[in-house]
Amino acid sequence: MIKVSNVFPFDSQLQSEADKFKKLIAQSKQILISSTSTSDGDSIGAQLGIYALVAALKGGKTDGIWMVDHSPVPNRYGFLKDADKILSIQDFDKLESKPSFDLGITLDGGTERTGDVRKLFEKIPAVLVDHHAVGSPLEYASRILDLEASSTCELVYHLFEYFDMPVNKEIAESLYIGIVFDTGFFKHSLTKPRTHFVASHLVETGIDFSKISDKALLERTWEAQQLLKLLLNNMEKSNDGRIVSSHWSLAELNKINPRDGDQEGMINQLYYLEGSEAIALFVEKDEGEVKISFRSKGKVNVAEFARSLNPDGGGHVRAAGCVMKGSLADVKLAVVKKLHSLLQT
Ligand SMILES: [Mn+2]
What we know:
Blueprint: H1 4-7, H2 12-27, E1 31-35, H3 41-57, E2 65-69, E3 86-88, H4 89-94, E4 103-107, H5 118-121, E5 126-130, E6 142-145, H6 152-162, H7 169-183, H8 193-204, H9 209-218, H10 222-233, E7 236-237, E8 243-248, H11 250-256, H12 268-271, E9 278-284, E10 289-296, H13 302-309, E11 314-315, E12 319-325, H14 328-344
Parallel strand pairs: 1-2, 1-4, 2-3, 4-5, 5-6, 8-9
Antiparallel strand pairs: 7-8, 9-10, 10-12, 11-12
This protein binds manganese (II) ion.
């Protein structure tokens, strides 16, 4: 097969950052690998990919290579190779003899996004491997940032090729899951010809892409199905059909008792309503707070909108969120009204 790097080579900047990365790996004995605290298919897939790459660069040895995340790995990714080696920061803190790290690597977001793992990055050089346009503002010993990559997993694949390391079936599974997750099954606008090219190489390793995509990304727990039932039951639309919203009250959530990750991606079920333009999902929290997730199909910049409701809110132009104080009914009414007037302008 034609190498991806022959058709889409790293530019000189990425080459020099990748070379620095390799040097840092060679110099370091205890290496920390972490990813963003909101663990998802791309962050976990990329973390497992980098773990395998670092081990390969170390001649196949995994001693001294550690994976630590803010939270335990979501169940749905548990079948991926070496996912069981990812420690939560709580488990790491309980270790009797802790390694003293000389290098840290952060995937799919800067060290400021690693939650409670951030403390482990203090005082050690760090490597960033990421594809987010709003990059980390911090200093890195090596900054492997590729805005053209659909996902961090796509970028990690390029690193394997750059260092001439083979990608076996197990590594391919992790990287494929990340690409599919971030592109929404090759549907989102960041999907490029390059993305399909990388995916074709991963499929070539013989992965069962149908089975692993179902398992990691589409299958739901019983509790999640109950959430979906409620989501559709509570769904409302504005008279003109441009705003669609739904909610889960605290009482409803307590009754269902969902697991971590059960709510992930469910807002898409509202998004798929034809004619909808602005989508809002309200989730009642303890202590009179409501968490809101937004999606937009164009006119409304929901990142700005979320920030206008709460300065701590934000996200992307078409997908964002925030938390507001107040009762579920009051917050819903106020937010939908504001969305309505935004759409009228
Ligand atoms: Mn990503």
